[in-house]
Design goal:
The structure holds 2 protein chains of 2 kinds.
Chain A lengths: L4 E4 L3 H9 L3 E3 L5 H6 L7 E4 L8 E4 L2 E5 L4 H6 L1 H6 L1 H8 L4 H6 L2 H5 L51 H7 L3 E6 L2 E6 L22 E7 L3 H4 L1 E6 L10 E10 L2 E10 L6 E2 L1 H7 L6 H9 L13 H19 L2
Parallel strand pairs in A: 1-3, 2-3
Antiparallel strand pairs in A: 4-5, 5-8, 6-7, 6-8, 9-10, 10-11, 11-12
Chain B lengths: L2 H5 L3 E8 L2 E8 L4 H8 L18 E4 L2 E4 L12 E3 L1 H7 L3 H9 L9 H13 L6 H7 L11 H15 L7
Parallel strand pairs in B: 1-5
Antiparallel strand pairs in B: 1-2, 3-4, 3-5
Helix pairs in contact in B: 4-7, 5-7
Bound molecules: flavin-adenine dinucleotide, iron/sulfur cluster and FE2/S2 (inorganic) cluster (2 copies).
Flavin-adenine dinucleotide binds next to strand 2, helix 2, helix 6, helix 7 and strand 8 of chain A.
Chain lengths: 325, 171
């Protein structure tokens, strides 16, 4: 690890001031410390934000609000989350391991970095690690990489599971920076790689995530997360789908679908959603709608299997959500 | 020292308890918890394996929760309560589990064992009789390259059963 300094922030104002002076926020450290060891991340200053009062999990009407420092394990086990947002809990439980979930914060989770192996290999070209150096994955081992939102510069998937649930459920986030607070949809946090794959999110310099708000409703209570991976637990997704359904009089009234493991950011499947409104949730309808997820996909040499797996995962996740009724 | 150097120190003083004993130390901010325990305090129970959060060999307890010792900085632990396998061996909290691990051959080389014991103790602390699937899920973040896990799951299952029946520890 390279040398760095560490400061503890006592208030959000302290933290933001430190960030303005060049410090990086550290919460659970499960992404940052790992990548600092690899010298992929090289911050010279860290500001520890764990003492900030951003840990609460609260219910407001049917909405759930998570402080940025709430831990994955706390949210996943919270009775109100299980009752109102089972999809959020399931997406968290399906990620990482108990020890990591105890450490990892929800704010840090959204800003975790890609799991493309070349990103960590200093002797391999990687535009994300070193802009302009090239992308080894394009012609390399790209079986785990994205089929949506890719560019000639980068094809890595966004690895977060809970971000997929948040994008499906129209969650919003509140952040505070040197110029005050703002709120925006979690979906707008993520950038496509385009020509600047080293820029991954839309936070302004110094902005601190304060909280994430997930709107509730009938569809949010009837929602599941299906994560398909190489082994049954403790692995990142090959393809995952978050599906939320509200069925009334035998037809779908509300539906939300987002997928992980396929996009360079968590991918909302709006065409699939539109095709399902007003239809009965039978297998034929679900399968037909799920196929619409393939529009615009661009498989690489080793990830063609995702073309088959993506619609199947969506259809099955919708079925699982339907079975909750 | 300039103002900036003071507010962004590279060494910090920490006071914490390790295995119930108070410890005061001045540490480099880059000192990982597992290295602090092993190299500075001589507590070699928590192992350093992958040092990337993947293998679980460094699993230990901080403020009542199991965590990865390789992904925490000692400097962040001022005021914390840390337990390693040495401490929990001394208190006897793990005695029945340790006996069951030996009985069932749930360890061979033993590299994963301290971390595995913490993951096992964590699911046992939830009480009741967890299913084998739930046990496997709970230890999924702890790699073992020797046993094939079956014996580890057996050992945990046995202890859960014994504890649920209120049987005495047979250490
Ligand atoms: C072995 C392993 C397996 C994993 N498996 C999964 C998995 O299956 N699914 C999954 O979703 N994730 C998985 N993860 C990733 C894990 O969930 C993330 O590392 C974790 O959520 C990051 O949170 P943190 O608090 O530790 O972040 P940190 O490492 O502390 O920070 C990460 C980034 O976020 C920034 N940051 C943190 N908090 C804030 C804030 N409030 N405001 C602004 N910026 C902030 C930091 O500056 C840093 O850039 C895995 C990780 C490991 C090590
Ligand atoms: S896919 Fe992205 S992260 Fe992976 S090598 Fe290419 S540029 Fe780097
Ligand atoms: S050494 Fe910490 S998880 Fe491997
Ligand atoms: S006993 Fe050797 S790694 Fe588990």
């Amino acid at each position: 690890m390279l040398l760095f300094t560490l400061q503890k922030a006592g208030s959000p104002e302290d933290a933001i001031a430190a960030a303005q002076a060049g410090a990086r926020y550290i919460a659970g450290g499960t992404t940052l410390i790992d990548l600092m060891r690899e010298e992929v991340e090289r911050p010279e200053r860290l500001v520890d934000i764990n003492a900030l009062p951003l840990k609460d999990i609260r219910v407001e009407g049917e909405d759930l609000v998570f402080g940025a420092l709430a831990r994955m394990s706390e949210i996943a086990a919270h009775p109100d989350v299980l009752r109102l947002q089972p999809l959020v809990a399931e997406s968290l439980i399906e990620g990482a391991s108990p020890q990591l979930r105890n450490m990892a914060s929800i704010g840090g989770n959204l800003l975790q970095r890609v799991r493309c192996p070349y990103f960590r290999m200093h002797d391999a070209a990687c535009n994300k690690r070193q802009p302009g150096s090239g992308c080894t994955a394009l012609d390399g081992l790209n079986g785990g990489h994205a089929i949506l939102g890719t560019s000639e510069q980068c094809v890595a998937t966004h690895p977060s599971d809970v971000a997929v649930a948040f994008v499906a459920l129209d969650a919003t986030m509140r952040v505070r920076g040197p110029d005050g607070e703002r709120s925006f949809p979690v979906e707008e946090l993520f950038r496509l790689p385009g020509d600047t794959p080293h820029l991954e999110h839309t936070l302004l310099p110094g902005e601190l995530i304060l909280e994430v708000r997930v709107p509730g409703g009938a569809h949010a209570r009837q929602a599941r997360y299906l994560k398909v991976r190489d082994r049954a637990s403790y692995e990142f997704a090959l393809v995952s789908a978050a599906a939320a359904l509200e069925i009334e009089d035998g037809v779908i009234r509300t539906v939300r679908i987002a997928c992980g493991g396929v996009g360079t950011k968590p991918w909302r499947m709006r065409a699939c959603e539109q095709a399902l409104i007003g239809r009965p949730p039978d297998r034929a309808n679900l399968e037909a709608a799920a196929k619409l997820a393939l529009e615009g996909t661009r498989p690489l040499a080793h990830n063609h299997y995702k073309i088959e797996l993506l619609p199947r995962t969506i259809a099955r996740a919708l079925e699982m959500a339907g079975e909750l009724a | 020292m300039s103002d900036t150097a003071q507010s962004f120190p590279t060494r910090v003083d920490i006071s914490l308890t390790v295995n119930g004993e108070p410890v005061d130390a001045r540490v480099d901010v880059s000192r990982h918890l597992v290295d602090f325990l092993r190299l500075d305090l001589g507590l070699t129970g928590a192992h350093a394996g992958c040092e990337h959060g993947v293998c679980g060999a460094c699993t230990l307890q901080v403020d009542g929760e199991i965590v990865r010792g390789c992904l925490m900085l000692a400097a962040q632990l001022d005021g914390a309560e840390v337990w390693t396998v040495e401490g929990l061996t001394e208190t006897g909290a793990l005695a029945d589990l340790q006996a069951a691990f030996v009985e069932r051959n749930a360890l061979q080389c033993g590299f994963c064992t301290p971390g595995m014991l913490f993951a096992a103790a964590d699911i046992l602390a939830q009480g009741g009789q967890p299913s084998r699937v739930a046990i496997r899920e709970h230890i999924s973040g702890n790699y073992c390259r020797c046993t094939g896990y079956e014996a580890v799951v057996d050992a945990i299952e046995t202890v859960a059963g014994a504890r649920a029946r209120g049987e005495e520890v047979s250490a």
